[in-house]
Amino acid sequence: xxxxxxxxxxxxxxxxxFFPVTAYGPDGAVDLDVxxxxxxxxxxxxxxxxxxxxxxGEFHALTPEEFQSCVRAAVEETAGRVPVVAxxxxxxxxxxxxxRLAEDAGADGLLAMPPYLVVAGQEGLLRHYRELxxxxxxxxxxxxxxxxxxxxxxxxxxxRTDGVIGFKDGVGDLDLMQxxxxxxxxxxxxxxxxxxxxxxxxxTALAYRGIGITLYSSAVFCFAPEIALAFHQxxxxxxxxxxTVVDQLLDGFYRPFVDLxxxxxxxxxxxxxxxxxxxxxxxxxxxxxxxxxxxxxVKQLAQLIERGYELLEEGV
Length: 316
Known about the structure:
With 316 residues, the chain is an alpha/beta fold. The protein is built from twelve helices and eight strands. The chain has helices spanning 6-11, 32-45, 64-78, 92-104, 122-134, 152-159, 174-187, 205-209, 225-236, 245-261, 267-278, 295-313; strands spanning 17-18, 49-52, 84-88, 109-112, 139-144, 164-169, 193-196, 215-218. Strands 1-2-3-4-5-6-7-8 form an eight-stranded parallel barrel, surrounded by five helices. The radius of gyration is 18 Å and the shape is globular. The two termini are 34 Å apart. 47% of the residues are buried.
């Protein structure tokens, strides 16, 4: 077990960042035994960190009690081998409550998701995340997506905020991200972390590397860890010039997966969960308002997973 600061543990990951799905039993209740198995398998497969109860883990669908139980289970299953980062969101008061629940459960940090519903100005967003960071001893990564989109000036102020160690982008505006990276580098120099947080981030990993962002979340790791790990290792080895592992996995697996994911709303979660079930772990269905993928899409996913593993066997 290591006590190194979270930023240091995340800065050069040994494997993909793992965002486990949350397991539900036949009655719809959280199944902690299956969830524990899912987390344990991910860590054993080479995950560098566990991001528990975040977007892929249906944070929005969990009660505070369920949230804390899952975070505690993830902490216990990792046993200090990798850090555990928990989601936190909604309005400021609830985000603070979730942060304290995560802290009590033993988490190492927080992924701060957008405030609920409102489209706030930059001043209000900055106040929200500063109040969240001040309310807990946990390090905070701010997640840019949906109704929380930041100017470079605001991110500079976030980088100057005690407890805020990083910024995850789920928007995909590379012009904006380049300006953010440049502004923080110039006006708040230090070891501020950046993450590519787009769905199926592997597809855009090369583009983000071009502006210096090498960390990314991997939903594919939930159901095909060997594929995600092979891609991660090839990318970090610089194997992406010409007909390489990165190109072949992008062309043969990741791009088709993204095309399939685009066939339904919420598939960034429900299709991943279907993938986990296809690989032999019954994590249940998604909770409403998300819905299950169409049967034909699940069949296509099964074929795609098979093709991905065939690529690995062919020695890509």
